[in-house]
Amino acid sequence: MKFAKKKSNFAIPMNAMSDVSFLLLVFIMLVALINYRKEVKIEYPEARSENVKKTSAEKNMELWIDQNGATYLDGTPCDIETIEDAVADLYLNAPDTRVHIIADRNVPFEKVNAVLATLQLLQYRVVSLVVKD
After folding, report:
1. Nearest-angstrom CA–CA distance, 73 and 102
2. Which helix (H) or strand (E) is 47 found in, with range?
3. What is the pTM of this model?
4. pLDDT (tens digit, 9 = 90+) per residue, 53-89?
5. Which residue from 37, 116, 108, 38 is spatially nearest to 67, judged by alpha carbons?
6. Sign of CA dihedral 118, 48, 108, 100
7. For the chain, which domains are there?
């Protein structure tokens, strides 16, 4: 018994290709925003010593202090109590995570000292002051 071969005209439908590419573009744009780092606009102080060590910016807690003395935790405005709670949680979950203090060059030192005193009170020892090269 002989079987007849059927010719199949297989074609990929191209009608939805533009929709798929648009959705792919939207997905890529949304994923790119996940790693978006909030920054506060400040003027960095300059380093005068050659004993400056470079640290990576990944997996750190960033405490920003702007020119007016307002504090920000990872780019969102906060107060000293919020910083205290966040550092206490950080110490319990990941004690070797570095805290970066990024202060404006014109900020009064009392504002920086208040943050340092809070970290000292919590006995958090992995702290860096961020400066410009």
Report:
1. 10
2. none
3. 0.61
4. 666 666 788 888 988 888 998 888 999 899 889 888 8
5. 108
6. negative
7. 61-129 (3.30.420.270)
